[in-house]
Please model this.
Amino acid sequence: MPTRRKPDQSAPEAVSPTGAGTGEREDTVDPRAQSGDHLTTAQGLRLPDTDHSLKAGERGPTLMEDFHFREKITHFDHERIPERVVHARGAAAHGVFVSYGTGASVTKARFLAEKGHETPVFVRFSTVLGSRGSADTVRDTRGFATKFYTDEGNFDLVGNNMPVFFIQDGIKFPDIIHAGKPHPDREIPQAQSAHDTFWDFVSLHTEATHHTFWNMSDRGIPRSYRTMEGFGVHTFRLVDRKGNTHLVKFHWKPVAGVHSLVWEEAQIAAGVDPDFHRRDLADAIEAGAFPEWELGVQVMPDDGTETFEGIDLLDPTKIVPEELVPVQKLGRLTLNRNPTNYFAETEQVAFHTGNLVPGIEVTNDPLMQARMFSYLDTQLTRLGGPNFSQLPINRPHVPVNDMLRDGMHQTAIHTGVAPYRPNSLDGGLPEVDPEQGYVQTPRRIEGNAVRANPVSFDDHFTQAAMFYRSLTTLEQQHIVEAFTFELGKCYEQSVKERELLVLARVDGGLCEQVAEGLGLPVPKGVEAVGEVVLSPALSQVVAVPGPIAGRKIGVIADSDSDIAGIRSLRKALLKQEAELLVIAPHGGFIGKGRNKEVVQRTVLTARSIEFDAVVVAGGTGHEPDIKTVILLQEMYRHAKAVGAWGDAVEVLTGSGIPADGPGVLQASSADKAFTTELIATLGLHRVWERTAAVMADEVAPVR
Ligand code: HDE
Model:
């Protein structure tokens, strides 16, 4: 059996944050990598010592002869591989996709068409711009890449958390990425778009406008990976059993709802816990609050026009509003297992838009066409040669019999003498399969060789205006603040002025507010988009409480606190799969005897960003220290639920929290009414009524 190092569980604070096991599974360990109990060299030679190099005398130089030293150091020197040129920072999980069978009306792909069909998956979430070690919560687009190990071969849906993209033609991809990455001279700023080259590019390439609005919206700072929507972005062509085709757009709908951070939280988290999203995903899975999404499609007719109601379906900067074409649900994805080894799985997984199965095809979207080249190509450098599909995480779960041979890192021992077709020497094998093999639907392709876009790609502003105007006042305010922040970080006046011109073409009111924030004049004589049909589905503010599974609630307590109350609150929250964490002045335990409670966070280690709500347990000492005051004030400022029971209400008021403020919960004990109200407030995600934008409206941000 492989030898395992167990996490230190002796000190309560060192216990896995969720209090659960390590999530490791024996059956995922490759016995070829770790077998036997003894330390060996890569050749299997047992070693007596790995802490001392072989030297000429105790005080002498190291000998060339020390093969163990050389093997150990050489391997270490080569442990890193090039990080992904984009989407370098990521976290992933294993799971299962269960089909509802509803897809049969549009596709013959078995994993979608057969009811109850289960397909193993591996999903990797990422940010686009930052390096592998960058912070999770920066303002950026998120990758949402899913590898379905179907019984017809691997299908990869390599999507994002936003439904549109910056550019319409893949040939510009190096340019937008060069503009978004840190400046080449100083290599700053890391993992963010708040700098001159980014805004220089997007103000000159106005097709980026719609995506820029999504990035500046709350979608650019998701609360968790598990509260993100996912989108295939491009239009795909689905083919049913009879050969009928439809054009579709893929959507992932999170069961936990779509939620975001507020900007100050995102900034604090980037410093206090740069692994915020990675930790959240792993913790939720380890605690058994498995993240879930429903996969759906918007189905449009494949009538030869590749447009729908005037929307060009080949233009990746456009969406089809859900009010126009509702999303039909095809199945449910559950992420239920953390990777065993980050490098072997999350780092080495290789997605490719060209990994398709019968029933799913690509379209002529020029962005998608470029991706069909890039994803295979990039792995040659990143994974060191053409055999990366043999890596365990990339291997399909069906028999593979290709005629690809040799190459760097070849791990297969191929048999036979005739890796060509037809052959007579290997019995004519492998055979081709004209019945079930992947056949592209014949489609007529003609036209002049031109470097040009269709005219329908020219409207860069209408849908940006539709997006902005469809949101609540509160969400619009966040967009205004984000543009003002990002442009405020630019040094070049001309860049700011040009972007104001872009904003003026989208929405005059927005442009005025950003211009005011920047202290610049509003551009004159620019006409904004006129009236647009709104799409309320674009807003993520909810009116009805959603599930709270996986949410974290902190309870401030000390040895005088009402331990029974803490326990009954924990019980109620656990029923909802939410977690209660005790925050105390010191580590170890609070209470005595049977009334002892483990402390999960100390006042020193806790920070507001980790919690969706914080309450103070009755009986807790009334003189809050400065860290407690900061914790409660941040919770209040970030529109999250706070509360207290019994005499601990004084801790709230002593921290400057208005006892009658919205979302400030009070009760004489941690009774049913208190927990019910807490759960309902958490389900709404934020107490937006506290924020200036909503107060100005004098109404809740509900349409
Ligand atoms: Fe990617 N993209 N991309 N991209 N992309 C990569 O592939 C590329 C685009 C997306 O977790 C790279 O293996 C080009 C759109 C995700 O491993 C690379 C173009 C969308 C991931 C690449 C695009 C995406 C990548 C880098 C313009 C949303 C992370 C490493 C034509 C629909 C996958 C790698 C993971 C990764 C190229 C545009 C999503 C270089 C050339 C549009 C989620 O091949």
In short: The mean pLDDT is 94. Residues 84-87, 90, 124, 126, 143, 145, 158-160, 165, 170, 173, 233, 349-351, 367, 370-371, 374-375, 378 surround HDE (CB under 6 Å). The two ends are 59 Å apart (CA to CA).
